[in-house]
Design goal:
single chain; mainly alpha; 14 helices
Length: about 375
């Protein structure tokens, strides 16, 4: 889904105190003051209402903003075990701890609302995704810098950063956009891979193992990054985009520009979009809604992948109308991606907790097929 990016500002209110002096005539001596009241404990700091505010605070920190630039270490970073941040990068990371420590706080806060402007349809901007990607690189690079020191405190601090990356991944859930959910899964996979590597290299203590497992249990849910909700929101975003842009004499042309820019000549011809005005295009979205309802009804079925594959085949054959033919979708692929992600989380829990790998089932008898699973 083509989505634009927008800078988002955080306005931090400043409190001010006004003092007034009151002058008056000389008064008789006042009686001795009453004894002071017993001291009361200071009120606790108010809880942060939105994790997104803490993330933005981390990214804009004076000492840290350079390492949160979208392109920071993008060209040099590698997930492979042998990669280490250079001496220059290590020095930059050491100086950026104020922002990194704020990031560690942000990942533990719920909820996280990035304020996506859904009324903009496909033009909604999501600048936080690029910032979350660079945050993932920073967390892994800083974790490796710290763990390489070898002392107990540094290793524990490094593992805290790996756990933070795992937790960070779920903070795209409220976007309800497939791009965001898939980004969250890929970022979590980075953290899961790093945690499993530490376990396999026997670098975890019971304390650090628990830190990682606590983070893993937070995302060990049926859909931690909200992919199903994002899929459910796709037809809403499509309808919004068509209403905003596919109007007047150029309705069909705008459809191809905004929605079907990758469609080939055959798809364009089969869709019939070029023969539709804006109202007809919008009416055709009703059939797209039907398709998505069927996808969501099948989503949790044992044979979800097979059912969704059949729906997507019907879509490509024109069974849900011309707009559905022209709109690019990854319905089956999204369901498969979620299955693989859940399997990866389960593998990480087994590996980090030291559980043995599950025994593979015996091969199916000739002429039979193993049961399919959509979970």
């Amino acid at each position: 889904m083509p989505l634009r990016y927008r800078s988002m500002l955080v306005l931090v209110p400043l409190a001010s105190v006004c003092l007034a002096a009151v002058a008056g005539a000389q008064q008789p001596a006042a009686p001795p003051p009453a004894p002071p009241a017993p001291a009361q404990p200071a009120p606790s700091a108010p809880a942060v209402a939105n994790a997104a505010d803490l993330y933005r605070q981390a990214w804009s920190d004076t000492f840290s903003e350079a390492v949160f630039d979208d392109g920071y270490i993008l060209a040099d970073f590698k997930e492979e075990a042998s990669w280490m941040p250079s001496a220059v990068v290590a020095s930059q990371l050491a100086g950026a701890q104020p922002g990194i420590l704020t990031l560690l706080k942000a990942v533990k806060v719920d909820p996280c609302d990035w304020g996506v402007a859904y009324d903009q349809g496909y033009d909604a901007r999501v600048p936080h995704l690029s910032k979350l990607r660079v945050s993932a690189r920073v967390l892994i690079a800083d974790a490796r810098r710290l763990i390489a020191k070898g002392d107990t405190q540094s290793v524990e601090d490094g593992v805290d950063r790996v756990a933070a990356l795992i937790l960070l991944s779920r903070h795209v859930k409220n976007d309800r956009l497939t791009l965001s959910s898939r980004t969250g899964q890929s970022l979590a996979a980075m953290g899961l891979g790093e945690g499993m590597r530490l376990a396999r290299d026997n670098k975890l203590t019971e304390k650090t193992r628990k830190v990682l497992l606590d983070a893993l249990h937070v995302i060990d849910t049926p859909d931690p990054c909200g992919l199903k909700d994002a899929v459910a929101n796709e037809p809403v975003m499509l309808r919004t985009t068509i209403k905003r842009t596919c109007t007047g004499p150029s309705a069909a042309a705008m459809f191809w520009t905004k929605i079907g820019s990758k469609a080939n000549t055959d798809v364009r011809a089969r869709s019939g979009i070029d023969q539709m005005d804006g109202a007809a295009i919008l009416r055709a979205v009703d059939s797209v809604d039907t398709m998505y309802r069927e996808v969501l009804a099948a989503w949790d079925a044992p044979d979800a992948v097979q059912q969704i594959k059949a729906i997507e085949t019907q879509k490509n054959d024109g069974g849900y109308g011309g707009v559905a033919v022209a709109v690019p979708t990854e319905l089956q692929h999204n369901r498969v991606v979620l299955m693989r992600f859940r399997s990866l989380v389960a593998e990480a829990i087994r590996t980090i907790s030291g559980q043995p790998a599950p025994v593979a089932p015996p091969p199916a008898a000739p002429g039979t097929a193993p049961p399919a699973s959509g979970k």
